[in-house]
Structure formats: structure tokens, C-alpha cells
Specification:
The protein is built from 31 helices and 13 strands. It is an alpha+beta fold and 787 residues long. Among the domains are: 391 residues, Multidrug efflux transporter AcrB transmembrane fold (Up-down Bundle), CATH 1.20.1640.10; 96 residues, Ribosomal protein S10 (Alpha-Beta Plaits, 2-Layer Sandwich), CATH 3.30.70.600. The chain starts with a helix and ends with a helix.
Length: 787
């Protein structure tokens, strides 16, 4: 290719790069909604075999996703209530909140009872059902006990409407009666630990995961909280909600991106300046890498419609691997001296770069096979970025590096030669075999200590302050968002309610034994028609003798008009679910009804309350038709565990797939030597992780897959480049070490990430790349090394 052809190809590449950059800028900044996804649930894979269970899991996860819960605390009762009112008024003035609830509108507690009066004879508490079913039930005794009960300050029925207390007992079991929060001065209040706590809730006018909504809402909340705490001394505001977790995740990711990107950029820049002794190679290396990252970002958003925080942090680390291709080309230029010719240099490095690219793409392609959208996006990002960075070396750099460059710095070459000579001397012959055996013996205790941990919560590490505040709010108010729930399915709503009741009979022993606080389900608020008719049947013997009933009530002091009204109300009507769901009282609980499932059936949710082991919940649902325990974190953890177990097979498969490629290039007899550095690097990395008591996760295995690809790259670079630098021993290994150190400066920094999964990923790469880079001289025979 002539000079004109080089410039034409470079011009076309630059034009394509500009178009990709413009598209990426529009995708990231030119639309109403940012494609950066801070919702961690969005990147989790579907794990439920039952499609309705998957829908229910998503619905429950986002039921309160846009709600903010604030708990205003003060040792002084008046100040706590004043602070809550002030907080509510201030937040309601900001249109980032669709609604704010602090002060409740004045209402009569009897309004909560009135809808149930027509159904009073069909609603019985379990204790009353049991008592009425006994032959020795004494109505007169039950009536006397009810008449002599102390006055109720909560949701209490009038004596003339419920003389035996049956409806009252049923109401006492309802969620609003069990809640620690009680209306006081039109505020939902809890008195505890010598302090008053007042609940304030707000609903965002948008999504918690929208960057603009996050910033506006947090700014408003922070300002209002400061004002309230200033105006009402001693006030403390506890907060929880998806808004705060999403914002913390975004802040953590941004910190990681800045830390990894900035530190690695500075480190790589200083390293390249020291080795190449000129700013030109530095700028060219970063140009090539930047083009790759821009293309990778654009492709990720195009393919997935969004980009995850995990991918952004990973993308910042990709800098150290994508820069390898330009480093090898620029090293060839430096080593050629005055004989440099761009096209000849390109022919020299092309086989090595294509082999290296192929092995890297193989590792990332296997990563993309995992049914986990975040990992697939990381694979897409890496494959695109690496490919474009490599193509930029072929199409862009030759036109920009026409003149010869300074040779690599002498200290770097001398250090590399000394290290290469030492490793090569001990890696060959009988000494190599002995050292290999010793290393394996040292590794065995580490392998023996290896453990695994597939907990999905390792994906994130929410700030301790947020987790503490959520725990406090849950403990004080009883409010909380559990991740475990039962999906109850049936042919229609009646069968669903009957199956809920069967489940509740299994759950009650867990409550009685103290292993469970309770549960939230529709059947507890609207019994099945079968249960309600059975309740009427239990009361039938008492009402079959109206004169005797009148005698009991008259003897207890009831007026004749009230007695007549009571008797005329019998037998009443049954309460129907579809009618109850339309009442204001049902508003907080409507999300429990899944409705029709699209297959002629219906479904509902039952939420266990309290920290209950999954095994106990699973046992409670065993052999109950239509009842499925859905534990999303546990199911995702199981999925991670399954693919972690497969990962060793994938790693072996990757090695097997690389063998024919290397055999074609180097001959079958040399394949073990070429693969020895990455394979030993992986083995030693696993041993160190065992000694460090670092539990293995899917992310550790995915990192080992990349160690294989990167390590194979280094072996390829060294073998392909050695024949061209016979005049300057150590120069080729110096460029390999340069590539390795740039990778360590980027991927290794992930070990400091705020995300636990990325910390393990980074630590594994740090160890694996380090070991492999040191062992790479063993991949070249002594004759080839020092010819």
C-alpha cells in the first residue's frame, strides 16, 4: 500500500470514528432520559421458571421503588411533631414530589369499621372460630367479657354493633391494627426509647433511577432536613427508599470510574513517557484506546438500550488491555530505529495482534454466554472496544507514525533482560521441572482452602449508614420491603383465597414459635367465600333462638332498639374481594392482588414478615397446590452458583479451543510451552486466593478467563517479536512488561472498587496478570530468546 493509500484509509477511519462519537454523544446526552442504569435489579437475570413469579418479583421490587420513607425523631414530643409538619409542608412545595404525606386529613376511626358492619357475621378471628366450634361455648360469658373490656383507643367497634366482640377481634388482626404507628394529632406516631418518631412519606414525580430526579430530590431533601434540624433542635431524620440506594450506587460507580480512570491514565502516561521517552507514543496510545472505548460505549447503548454502572467501571479498567495493541506497534517502531517503515512494521506485528485479539475475544465471548445482562454487556463492551482499538492500529497509526522514534529507554530494557534471563534460566530443563513441582506443592494448601460464595448481595455494598437507617425504620415502624414472598395461584379468586388460607395455617406455627413476625396477605383481610359461609354456620345455632339471644343481650344491659337492630342484621352478606379492592382502605394493599394471569386463572402475593430462613418458608409451602415461594436473591444466588460450577469447564474449553490456533502457528510440540505461563498464572492465583480466604464467585472465574486470554497475548507478543529484536535483547520483553503493567494499573485498581463483585474481579486479574507476566519468558526457548 502506498503513502496515499495509508492516508485514505486513515481518513476513512477518522470519519467513521467521528460518526460513532456523534452517535454515542446523542445516545448519552441528547435524549430526555439518561441511558445510565442505576437500578441494580434491572441487570439481574430472570430466574423464575414460572413467568407469573418473575412478573410478581419485578412488581414487588418496584411497588415502593419511587417512595421515600422519612422518620422524624426527637426526644421532645412537640418538637418531633412540629418538625414532621414542617418537613411535609416544605417537601410538598417542590414539584419533584408527586405527593407528600405528613399530616393525615381529619377522619373518624369509625370510617374504618363501617365498610365491615354489613359483613360482621362472616368475619371471625381464628380464636373465635375455635371457641365457637367447641360444644361448651358459653355466649353469656363471651358477652360479659366484651362488656367489661377496657375502652379501646384504636379501631374499635361500638358495643351495640358488636356486642360479642367478634368483629372487633377480627379487626384486631388486621395490618393497620397491628402496626406500631398510631394516629396522634393527625400524625402517624410511635413512642419508643424515650423519643417520639413521626412518619413522613413522599412519592417521586418520576423514577428513583432517573439521574435528574435523583439530583433534584436529594437536593430538596438535604436542604429541608437541614432547615428542620436547625429550627427544631434535637431532631434527627432517618431515611430509606430506592432513591437513596440508587444515588449511592451511582456515586460509588462514579468514584470508581474516576479513581480507576484517573489513576490508571496518569500511571500509564508516566510509564509510557518513561519507556518511550517522548509524548508522541503516549498520545497515540491513548488515541487508539479512546477510540475503542467510545465505540464500545456507543455499541453497548445501541444493543442494550442502556449502560449499567458495572459496565462503566469495567470500561474504565479496559484502558489497560486495549492499549496493548498500540504499545506493541509503537514498540516495534522504537526497536526498528532508523530502519523504520510503517507498512513493514505493520506486517511485523499483524500476526501477533490478530492472535492476541482472537484469544481475548474468545475469553469475552464465553463471558457473554452467561445469562446475566450485566456480564453480557461487559462482554459486548470489551469485544467492541478491543476490536476497534486493534483496527485503529492497522488503519490509523501507520499514517501517523511515519518517522523513526527513539529506542525504548535503556533502564527498562536492562531490567526486562535481567528478569527474562533469570526466569528463562530457571524455567528450562530439569530445574524448570523441579520448580514447577515445587510451585504446585506450595499451591495445593491454598487450593485446599478455597471456598465459594454465590450471594447476589456481593454485587453491591450499600453504605453502612443507609443499611443502618433502614433497619432502624423497619424495627420502629414495622415497615420494610422483603425480598421473599409466596405466589398463590388458582383457577379464580375464590380458589386463590382458599389456598392462601391453607398457607396461613402452615405459617401460624412459625409465628407462635417466634420464628416469624407475621405475614401480609389478602385472605387475612378478605376471607374466602367458603370461610365466610363456614363462619356464618358457626353462628347459626346462636341466632336460631332469637328469644334467647335477646335475653342474653337484655340481661347485659342492651336497649331493646339496639337488640332489635342487631338481630335484624343477621345473617348479613359476605365480603367479596373485587368489591373490597375498590375501597380506600384497600389502597395500600392492592399490589398484593396480581389479578388474572392470562391463562384463565388468578394470583395473589403473601408476604412473610421478619427475618425468616428460606428453608422454613419453603417447608411451609411444601405440597400446597398453587403455592410457590419466590426468593429472588436466593434464586439468583443459585444461578450464580450453577454458572460458577460451569466456569471451570468453560475455562478448560477455552484452553482446548486455543490449542489448535497455537498449534497452527507454532506447531503442536510448542503449544504446552506457550500456554504454560497463563495456565500456571491461573493455578497460582487460585492458590493465593485460597491463602487469602477469598471466597470464589462467578466473577473470580470470569476474571480467570480473562487471565487466560491476556496471558496468551503476552506469550504471543514475546514469541512473535523476539526474532525482530535480536540486535537488542530484552527489548521485546520490555514491551510485554509494559503491556502487563498498564493492565495491572487499570484492572488491578478494580480491587479497590466499592462494588464487592468488582473487587474480587480486580484482585484476581491483579494476581493472574502479575504471575503470568513474570512467567512469560518460559514460553520462549532459550535458543530463541538469546539468538
Amino acid at each position: 500500500m502506498n503513502q496515499r493509500g495509508l492516508w485514505l484509509r486513515a481518513g476513512g477511519f477518522v470519519a467513521a470514528t467521528l460518526l460513532i462519537a456523534l452517535l454515542g454523544a446523542w445516545l448519552l446526552f441528547g435524549r430526555d432520559r439518561s441511558p445510565i442504569q442505576t437500578d441494580l435489579l434491572a441487570m439481574l437475570p430472570a430466574t423464575e421458571r414460572n413467568p407469573m413469579a418473575e412478573v410478581a418479583a419485578q412488581r414487588l421490587a418496584h411497588a415502593n421503588g419511587d417512595r421515600v420513607i422519612l422518620l422524624v425523631a426527637n426526644a421532645d414530643d412537640d418538637r418531633a411533631k412540629a418538625a414532621a409538619r414542617e418537613l411535609g409542608r416544605a417537601l410538598s412545595k417542590n414539584n419533584v414530589f408527586a405527593s407528600v404525606t405528613a399530616e393525615l386529613p381529619p377522619f373518624d376511626l369509625q370510617q374504618m369499621i363501617a365498610p365491615y358492619l354489613a359483613h360482621r357475621f362472616t368475619l371471625l378471628a381464628d380464636a373465635d372460630r375455635t371457641a365457637l366450634a367447641q360444644p361448651g361455648y358459653n355466649p353469656a360469658q363471651a358477652l360479659a367479657q366484651r362488656v367489661n373490656e377496657p375502652f379501646s383507643t384504636g379501631v374499635g367497634t361500638r358495643l351495640q354493633d358488636d356486642p360479642f366482640g367478634w368483629l372487633q377481634h377480627w379487626l384486631d388482626q388486621q395490618p393497620w391494627s397491628r402496626s406500631p404507628l398510631v394516629p396522634e394529632d393527625n400524625l402517624l406516631t410511635v413512642h419508643r426509647d424515650n423519643a417520639t418518631y413521626v412518619l413522613v412519606t413522599a412519592t417521586l414525580n418520576g423514577s428513583s433511577y432517573d439521574d435528574a430526579i435523583q439530583k433534584r430530590a436529594l437536593s430538596a431533601l438535604n436542604q429541608v432536613e437541614r432547615d428542620v434540624e436547625h429550627d427544631q433542635p434535637g431532631t434527627n431524620v432517618l431515611r430509606t427508599g430506592a432513591l437513596f440506594y440508587a444515588a449511592a450506587a451511582r456515586a460509588g460507580a462514579e468514584h470508581d470510574v474516576h479513581m480507576v480512570g484517573l489513576v490508571s491514565t496518569i500511571g500509564i502516561a508516566l510509564l509510557l513517557l518513561a519507556v518511550f521517552r517522548s509524548p508522541g507514543p503516549l498520545l497515540l496510545a491513548f488515541l487508539s484506546t479512546a477510540i475503542g472505548i467510545v465505540a464500545a460505549t456507543t455499541m453497548s447503548v445501541l444493543v442494550f438500550g442502556q449502560i449499567y454502572l458495572l459496565t462503566l467501571v469495567f470500561g474504565a479498567a479496559l484502558l489497560g488491555e486495549a492499549v496493548d495493541y498500540s504499545i506493541q506497534y509503537l514498540s516495534a517502531r522504537a526497536n526498528a530505529g532508523d530502519a523504520w517503515e510503517p507498512r513493514k512494521g505493520l506486517r511485523q506485528v499483524r500476526p501477533a495482534l490478530l492472535l492476541a485479539l482472537g484469544t481475548s475475544l474468545l475469553g469475552y465471548a464465553l463471558l457473554g454466554l452467561v445469562p446475566f445482562s450485566a456480564l453480557r454487556q461487559m462482554a459486548c463492551f470489551a469485544m467492541t472496544g478491543m476490536t476497534v482499538a486493534c483496527v485503529s492500529v492497522f488503519w490509523l497509526l501507520p499514517a501517523l507514525v511515519q518517522r523513526p522514534a527513539k529506542p525504548l529507554s535503556s533502564p527498562s530494557v536492562r531490567i526486562a533482560l535481567a528478569l527474562q534471563s533469570t526466569v528463562s534460566r530457571f524455567a528450562h530443563g530439569y530445574r524448570g521441572a523441579v520448580i514447577a513441582i515445587l510451585l504446585l506443592l506450595l499451591a495445593i494448601p491454598g487450593w485446599w482452602q478455597l471456598r465459594h460464595d454465590d450471594d447476589v448481595h456481593l454485587l453491591v455494598a450499600p453504605p453502612a449508614s443507609l443499611a443502618s437507617q433502614e433497619a432502624q425504620i423497619r424495627d420502629i415502624t414495622g415497615l420494610g420491603n422483603g425480598t421473599q414472598f409466596y405466589l398463590v395461584q388458582g383457577a379464580d379468586e375464590e380458589q386463590v383465597l382458599q389456598r392462601e388460607e391453607a398457607l396461613e395455617q402452615r405459617l401460624q406455627p412459625l409465628v407462635d414459635s417466634g420464628h416469624m413476625q407475621g405475614w401480609l396477605g389478602l385472605a387475612g383481610m378478605v376471607p374466602s367465600q367458603q370461610r365466610q359461609r363456614a363462619n356464618q354456620a358457626l353462628l347459626e345455632p346462636l341466632f336460631s333462638q332469637p328469644d334467647r339471644m335477646r335475653q342474653w343481650l337484655s340481661g347485659a344491659g342492651f336497649r331493646d332498639a339496639d337488640i332489635t337492630s342487631w338481630l335484624q342484621a343477621w345473617p348479613g352478606t359476605t365480603l367479596e374481594l373485587h368489591a373490597w379492592l375498590k375501597t380506600p382502605l384497600a389502597t395500600p394493599f392492592r399490589y398484593l392482588w396480581m389479578g388474572e394471569d392470562g391463562h384463565g386463572g388468578a394470583a395473589s402475593l403473601v408476604l412473610p414478615q421478619g427475618d425468616v430462613p428460606s428453608t422454613a418458608l419453603q417447608s411451609a409451602a411444601a405440597n400446597l397446590p398453587g403455592v410457590t415461594l419466590v426468593d429472588k436473591p436466593a434464586s439468583i444466588s443459585d444461578l450464580f452458583g450453577r454458572y460458577r460450577r460451569y466456569a471451570s469447564v468453560w475455562l478448560l474449553a477455552a484452553i482446548v479451543l486455543i490449542v489448535p490456533v497455537f498449534a497452527w502457528r507454532y506447531g503442536l510440540s510448542d503449544v504446552p510451552r506457550v500456554l504454560a505461563p497463563p495456565v500456571f498464572g491461573i493455578a497460582l492465583t487460585l492458590a493465593v486466593l485460597g491463602y487469602l480466604h477469598q471466597p470464589l464467585t462467578l466473577f473470580h472465574w470470569m476474571a480467570l478467563m480473562l487471565v487466560l486470554g491476556v496471558g496468551a497475548n503476552y506469550a504471543v507478543f514475546l514469541r512473535e517479536g523476539e526474532p525482530h529484536v535480536a540486535h537488542r535483547p530484552g527489548a521485546m520483553y520490555a514491551s510485554v512488561l509494559l503491556s502487563a503493567i498498564t493492565a495491572l494499573l487499570s484492572f488491578g485498581l478494580l480491587a479497590l472498587s466499592s462494588m464487592p463483585a468488582l473487587r474480587g474481579f480486580g484482585l484476581t486479574l491483579l494476581l493472574g496478570i502479575g504471575f503470568t507476566a513474570l512467567l512469560v519468558p518460559a514460553s520462549v526457548t532459550q535458543r530463541k530468546t538469546f539468538s
